[in-house]
Write a structure and sequence with these properties.
Keywords: Membrane, Transmembrane, Transmembrane helix. With about 80 residues, this protein is mainly α. The chain has 3 helices and no strands.
Length: about 80
């Protein structure tokens, strides 16, 4: 059951990445970052509220960390100038 949730979240992530690459927009990047953070929080709650075997816990934990990193990368401001 938990792997089904992880798979659904990965599909949602792939769709948001696809739409973000089609239309690069700063506002859309912030929305995508928020979506990734919300997905990570859902997966984090699954990690503690359900009983899973070790492989499923590892998969859920790594996916959660990935979603947090992707979401925070979209929410951080982009550098505007190059360093000399």
């Amino acid at each position: 059951m938990q792997l089904i949730f992880v798979s659904i979240m990965l599909i949602i992530s792939a769709l948001t990445e696809h739409f973000l690459k089609a239309k690069p927009n700063p506002q859309l990047q912030k929305i995508t970052g928020g979506i990734h953070i919300i997905i990570a929080l859902i997966l984090f709650s699954l990690y503690f509220w359900t009983s899973m075997n070790l492989i499923t816990k590892i998969a859920t934990g790594l996916t959660t960390i990935g979603f947090l990193l992707i979401g925070s990368a979209y929410l951080l401001p982009r550098p505007t100038s190059k360093y000399k």
